Amino acid sequence: MLETKNLTIRFGGHVAVNAVSCSFAPGTLTAIVGPNGAGKTTYFNLISGQLPATEGEVWLDGEDVSRLPAPLRARRGLGRAFQLTQLFPHLTAQENVRLAVQARESGRHGGGFDLARVWLDRRAWIEEAQSLLETVRLLDKANVLASTLAHGDQRKLEVALLIALDPKVYMFDEPTAGMSVDEVPVILDLVRQLKQRRDCAVLLVEHKMDVVRELADRVIVLHNGQLAAQGEPSAVMASAVVQQAYLGVVPQEQLA
Ligand SMILES: Nc1ncnc2c1ncn2[C@@H]1O[C@H](COP(=O)(O)OP(=O)(O)OP(=O)(O)O)[C@@H](O)[C@H]1O
């Protein structure tokens, strides 16, 4: 269970995320929506530790992780989809995924370096990496350098890396942005599969409302950094606050 309590960040006089308290249960996919500049990505950055909160807390499975740097939060199970800058551009797609598998296993075995174990486990890591590349439809690009993959393929690789780390919380920030129409279903299928699992929570920042309607169990709306609404997708989308704040529709009573 992930929970933010009163989570806040100020940039000078601007409050980008303002006292957001929210919890995210395993087995639930929560979509985070809101207009441009509402604070969605900043909220993600505060949860994953990329930005330090001015006030408030982030709790994961009963532990206050607010003061932990991003890598330690990742190790606790907060899985943020990688940015390209976090991939190894001069390694192949398979080598990148293999390193993520290896990092996960090393974390599980206490992080020590055991040469015999590395040798023995190497084949299994490669097989798992190949299988993950197949899952994200990248097997035919296994030996291509990450830096030379097309944009859509790089995003698939990011998802493969995230799955390899087996986090408790999956955080996707517009996972299909910039993808071609035929690539989008692959990523959405993967998100759909994760949603089926009962042991992880999925957080999805998404602008495409049809995707939100189809995938989300719950929607939270950020507006000017504040939690403006939350609840079941159809109810939240129909609410006046969302129609006005997000979709730009002025409610009927205000038109009268
Ligand atoms: N490092 C920073 N320094 C100063 N202001 C920032 C910083 N990061 C974000 N902001 C500001 O915080 C506000 C929220 O930005 P954020 O990117 O979180 O919005 P968003 O909801 O993700 O928008 P979009 O949908 O366009 O991606 C914006 O006004 C932005 O300019």
From TrEMBL:
CDD domains for the chain: ABC_Mj1267_LivG_branched
Stored SUPFAM superfamilies: P-loop containing nucleoside triphosphate hydrolases
UniProt GO cellular component terms: plasma membrane
InterPro entries in alphabetical order: AAA+_ATPase (IPR003593), ABC_AA/LPS_Transport (IPR051120), ABC_transporter-like_ATP-bd (IPR003439), ABC_transporter-like_CS (IPR017871), P-loop_NTPase (IPR027417)
Gene3D superfamilies: P-loop containing nucleotide triphosphate hydrolases
Keywords annotated in UniProt: ATP-binding, Cell membrane, Membrane, Nucleotide-binding, Transport
Classification via Pfam families: ABC_tran (PF00005)
Listed GO MF terms: ATP binding; ATP hydrolysis activity
Domain ABC transporter as annotated: residue spans: 2-249
UniProt protein name: Branched-chain amino acid transport system ATP-binding protein
